[in-house]
Design brief:
This protein is mainly alpha-helical. Helices cover about 75% and strands about 0% of the residues. The protein has ten helices and no strands. The longest helix has 26 residues, at about 50-75.
Amino acid sequence: MAKNADAKRMKILEAAKRRFAHYGLAKTTMAEIAQDLSFSKALLYYYFPDKNRLYAAVFEMAVDEIITETTEKINKAKDVNEAMEAFLATRLTVIKDNFNIFEFTYTLRNEMPSDIESVLPSLFEKEIQQVALILNKGIATKELEVEEVELTAKILLISLLGMRIGILQEFRNLFLPPTKEEFDYILSLQKKLAKIFIKGLRV
């Protein structure tokens, strides 16, 4: 029974992810998701009491996909610079490809539903661990010397994320989704910032 329930939950998340990725939260209804699955709305609500809870679960699943993909790329990287570039490029590509799922973290809406907001600290912590993984790789290859890995990873990640806000302010689009050009510009400057930061940690 538990396996059945897990399989149904995963089907719901996959169907909801397709809908949210294409239409976004506002333009997707629970009825449409249920119809895509040939489920009753009652069954859908049994697993997810409302659309925000479902969206939060899809968001978390998308975050886990980023973490899995970036971890694989970091582990395959030959050195710390390659690992950092892989992390930044993979992360931004997945966000760009699934922008409607990540829209709340970019539009900075003041009235973000609490179910979605509650997932954001988890995303931040997971990304700190990704940057820490890169720093530890640099320590293992004797490229870097880092005294406080977690704190250093946090400082670097905050700097990289803060750059996005600065760039959107520069384009005067702080409350609008970034364009493809802005995404590319964000990535290019993040890579430069990361290189400068990493250079300061070299042995």
